[in-house]
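G., the chain you wanted modeled:
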Amino acid sequence: MITRVFSGDQNLFWDAPLKIKVAESQGLEVTHLVHTADQFSRAPAQKKTPKSSDIAQEAYLPDGNLTHWAEMMESALFLGRAGLLPSEIGLDLKRLAKYRSEPYEQLVIEFSQADRWGVVLPQSEVLAHDVTLGEVKEGYNKLKKLMKRNLLWSLGHDPEISQKFEQAWQLYFGLDDLTLTIGEVYPKVLRRMIGQKVQVSTTLEYLQGKEKDILLRFWVEEYPKMLEIYNQSVEACGFQALRVKVGELPYYLLVNVNGKRIRQTLTLEKARTLESKSIIVPKAVMLLLKMLLENPLLLPENGSKYIVACKALARELKRLDSQFKFHQICWVKFNALDNLKGVQREFRVPEYLQPFFGERITGNKLASSWRKVCQEIEEELQIARQTKAVEWLKLKGQVSKEIWQEHELLVNRVASCHQTISKSEKALLEAQVRAFREEAYNQQCEFVVQALQAKNALSYWNSRPMYWWIHCIPGWEETVLENAEIEPEEIL
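Predicted structure as tokens:
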């Protein structure tokens, strides 16, 4: 029987408080680790690094990298777009960009953009643990204003909601000492939000207090084997493999630069000569494995993109050496949208969801209808993906009978003209047919992206809501805590 679990997160604006509250309500003892051993914000892939603390919207580039990385302090607009990987869209976006006369990269950003915003810093390499409140204050204030304005737009200017919002966000930055660091503040914030019973620490403190990592030791002793199974596990999930030539390890070495720590990639050669006081930080997959070696791990459903690779690697490690015995993963099922069933309040629906729900909807109506909407969207997507654009346009009733007949006439004239018209006249007819087809493809692409955004976002927010949404809307948090489930999974 599970009585104690590890939990972890790097972003307090997300679902960490809710996840811990669910576990406690079901009698579990929780040790939560705030992942301050990550960078606060990583160098943007597209734009220049900001000169001061600022906020940036998240989107993807064609190679799958984020335009900005702001996981330490990031939040989302109420029921906003969750973002689409270019590989998820499954369309010929280069063809579409050519038709629209738009840069390909800009089109990918437009289609993949999420309604998520995060605080970014100029010193992107600095460890989050060492960033001070003063350094992020300007960006934080911008983020807070944006989120409050959006929530009140969505729910109306209700004094109760406004007060709850201020109280919730005051817990994050209710401290006046701007010299305190993220590593000092985040654990205090969580304790204030969920009570003093939960043990809260940071991954950096957790890692410093351990003897030499048995997983790291195994890497050093069995590098070729570990490299093979690690790369197979992560590449199958779309993550970057380790570089063989430099003997790369899935760990970082922390080094002090101008009074603040930064991360350097750890190599096999460096690992063999490390001083005993060196601080080593595992990358995501290895950190999850390390925690699973000690306790069951509490994760929100659909909560970690690394967990599939982690489970695959764990299975291979168990085959290699019987000393590796991993605990269970405990999946928290919030079912946040389902649990709007007791909320009568009416919402203003984000624009991208309005084709499916209208401009306004009550919480209980959304709870009872969103799964059916997702099912209908999936059926429509299958038809769109299996049907040529022109035929799809006709099937959807997006083109009048007269225009369709004109198109068919053009196609037939091109097919039958042969030598009866000049080359220039034929080229003109072909251009007209091509323009019609490209416009049909343009409309088909827009539908697919809009449908995917709605389907993905609804499923995502049901699993991973922002805690402050749930806290601010009367009745929602109580219903989630009452009905949430925890489902253990063995790593077989």
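The chain has a mean pLDDT of 88.

Shout if anything looks off.
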